[in-house]
Amino acid sequence: MNAHQAISQFLAEFCPSPTSLEAFFLNAARRVLNLRDGQLLCRKGDEADEMWLILKGQVRVEDRGLIAVRSVGEIVGEVAFVRVAPKLRLRGADMVALGELTALRIDASLLEEMDQAQRLVWKDTLLAVLAGKLDQAQGQRADLNSSSSVMRDVMQHFVCAEAFSAAWAAITDQGFSRIDPEVCQAIVWFSDIAGFSSYAADLGPAEVGGIVREIMDVQTAIVASAGGQVDKYMGDGLMCFWRVPDDVRLKRFVPRAVTAALEAGSTLGGLIKERGLPLDVRIGMHIGKVTVGDFGGANRVAFTLIGETVNTASRYEQARTATDGLPLGRVRISDALFEALPDDLRSNFDNSARQIADKHSFTYGVRSSLDRAAVAT
């Protein structure tokens, strides 16, 4: 496409009277600007003393990323140029030649050569250009909002609410930033399907996946209804938590979290018995200080909880028997969590503390639910 065709295309699309301006712009060929690929047409913050009609090539409009690509027959730079106040006539973005660029320079001196009738037509032409770009921007905004909504929905399927809130704030705050860790008090839940590894050894992957998903769905629904959040899925294991940074939330969520564990144990116990499966569920819970935040590498977010409270909750879940040699129930909670329970919930657990030991023979006080049904494998 030559210069004449590019000018004609532009006027045909935006000008209410193309013939009144076509000859004028064709005679302005002396104002043509030529740039190589990658050269700057203007830089963000520059004073806007001209605009350009693209005759050949393309222009990238960018500000910390691509905003738009303008092609032959389009005007660029007109928004800042038409502003009246000098302090507002500043470029809002960089404009860079994309390929070999030829553009017609349109400045105040050129427009002064127009007669009165041509100036009126030119104003209407610019209004049409601006209206078209506004419509385009609104469409892009709608697409962006739609894409943002889809991205939010997808993210919420992969991370807990706590991680999503922190990650979304980091992403939308002028680009990605690290999620700073913080220390707070939390109730930590670990659960595992006891006996699953040996049982699943002879099953196909689809059957294994179906059983795990069903058991996880039961637990996650119960945890969510109790105000908890899933931190991660770990094969046939699950880690959840409740943040309890103050007395109000401590009193609210301790009963809910423990009730959720008892409900999950009972529901899954019934489901497993009904199916005749050689399985059971173990749930270990502890309360204490944790560090919450992003503990991933430079290129990947890994939002989670770490600390001795987390490790201790895991030990309660992993215990097969107490040090007295007797089995533990499905739900095992620490003395600290037991002491925070109201009296009506304490009756679901051992009256007196028992002990479990880790691999280093260090002992921990435990209160076990009374079902005594967990598989010790």
Would you spell out the secondary-structure blueprint of this structure?
Blueprint: H1 3-14, H2 18-26, E1 32-35, E2 40-42, E3 50-62, E4 66-70, E5 75-76, H3 78-81, E6 94-107, H4 108-111, H5 116-158, H6 161-172, E7 182-194, H7 196-200, H8 205-225, E8 229-234, E9 237-243, H9 247-275, E10 280-294, E11 303-306, H10 308-318, E12 331-334, H11 335-339, H12 343-346, E13 354-357, E14 363-368
Parallel strand pairs: 10-12
Antiparallel strand pairs: 1-6, 2-6, 3-4, 3-5, 3-6, 7-9, 7-10, 8-9, 10-11, 12-14, 13-14
Helix pairs in contact: 1-2, 8-9
The fraction of residues assigned to DSSP E strands is 25-35%
Oligomer: single chain
Q: What gap, in angstroms, lies between the N and C termini? A: 77 Å
State the shape.
elongated
| CATH level-3 fold name of the largest domain | Alpha-Beta Plaits
What is the CATH architecture descriptor of the largest domain?
2-Layer Sandwich
Largest sheet, in brief, is:
8 strands, mixed
Unreliable segments of 5+ consecutive residues: none
Q: What fraction, in percent, of the residue positions are helical?
A: 40-55%
Q: What is the total number of structural domains?
A: 2
Considering the protein shown, what is the CATH homologous superfamily of the largest domain? Nucleotide cyclase, GGDEF domain
The secondary-structure class comes to: alpha+beta
Task: Report the total helices.
Answer: 12
The tally of strands reads 14
CA-atom Rg in angstroms: 34 Å
Helix/strand order: HHEEEEEHEHHHEHHEEHEEHEHHEE
Q: What is the residue-mean pLDDT, rounded to a whole number?
A: 86
CATH class of the largest domain: Alpha Beta
